[in-house]
Amino acid sequence: MSSQPFTPFQVTLPGHPDRELTPNQKARHGHWSQRSKPVAAARQEAATESRNQLGHTPPDCEGSTISLRVLMLYKKGEQTLDLDNAIAALKPYIDGIFDYLKDGGDLKVDDRQIEALSISRAQSEVSQTIYRFFDLRSLSDDSRDAF
Questions:
Q1: Under DSSP, is residue 113 helix (H, G, I), strand (E, B) or coil?
Q2: Is the pTM of this model over 0.85?
Q3: Domain coordinates of the chain in residue numbers?
Q4: Which run of H or E residues covers position 87?
Q5: What is the rounded CA–CA span in Å between residue 37 and residue 136?
Q6: What is the sign, positive or negative, of the torsion defined by CA atoms of 130, 95, 91, 4?
Q7: Counts of helices then strands in the chain (DSSP H, E)
Q8: pLDDT digit string (tens) for 32-71?
Q9: Which of 58, 61, 83, 59 is nearest to 72 (CA)?
């Protein structure tokens, strides 16, 4: 367990969470095997992109209390996910990032360490989803609320 707060970091994934991951879409697909394919693909994409962007040695988040801030950027005219569908659809991507942070099981890191989660949407020139991780031990009370 690291006694020092980790340096904030972010992972940027192209586009938005797959609509197949939303509860509204999951209800349309009956068998678990059909529902599990998009979940596995999202998780793998997030783990691979995390490794590509942050390197082969993940930040040491073991024992940290994490604040996760997600910013979903949409192009003008793109359909956005409502909040409950966004939360559900983001879960496999968050799990994939934590798969990377676990470094093959060597570190004891789990998404249960997320104590604060915020999701924001904004219009942009590019469609992407940005996941920003902060150690709550390193944030002042004033900055805990800011994105």
A1: helix
A2: yes
A3: 9-145
A4: helix 83-101
A5: 34
A6: negative
A7: 3, 4
A8: 677 788 899 999 999 999 999 999 999 989 889 999 999 9
A9: 83
Banded model confidence at residue 137, pLDDT cuts 50, 70, 90? confident
Residue closest to 68 by CA, chosen among 2, 122, 18, 6: 6
**What SS3 class is residue 134?**
strand
Query: Which residue in 80, 67, 65, 60 sits closest to 124, CA to CA?
Result: 80
Q: Which residue has the tokens 């879960």?
A: 91
Dmax over CA atoms of the chain, in Å, equals 47
Please check whether the domain covering 9-145 is classified as CATH 3.40.50.360. Answer: no
* φ/ψ (deg, to 5) at 109: -125, 140
If you search the block for the tokens 């004033």, which residue do you land on? 142
Q: pLDDT tens digits, residue range 92-128?
A: 999 999 999 998 666 788 888 999 999 999 999 999 9
Of 89, 119, 109, 78, the closest CA to residue 17 belongs to 89
